[in-house]
Specification:
Keywords: Membrane, Signal, Transmembrane, Transmembrane helix
Order of helices and strands: HHH
Number of strands: 0
Number of helices: 3
Oligomer: single chain
């Protein structure tokens, strides 16, 4: 069950339909049009990816070190 939840979380994180815009960014993107709105959304996702990757690496290293002990 735990492995299924992990796989589901990974699939949700990397799905192509993720919308990362707050309400303010959504209104701005609607005024810009379809193309720039997709670019804005992709930029937000890229900015969010860096801290998430760092946190994931820290959790993985902690899990690996606690498993060895």
């Amino acid at each position: 069950m735990k492995k299924t939840a992990q796989i589901l979380a990974i699939i949700l994180c990397f799905s192509a339909q993720v919308m990362a815009q707050c309400s303010l960014c959504t209104k701005t993107a609607q005024q810009l049009g379809e193309g720039p709105a997709k670019g804005l959304n992709n930029g937000i996702l890229m900015l969010a990816a860096t801290p998430l990757i760092i946190i994931g690496l820290m959790v993985f290293r902690h899990w690996r070190s606690s498993r060895e002990a």
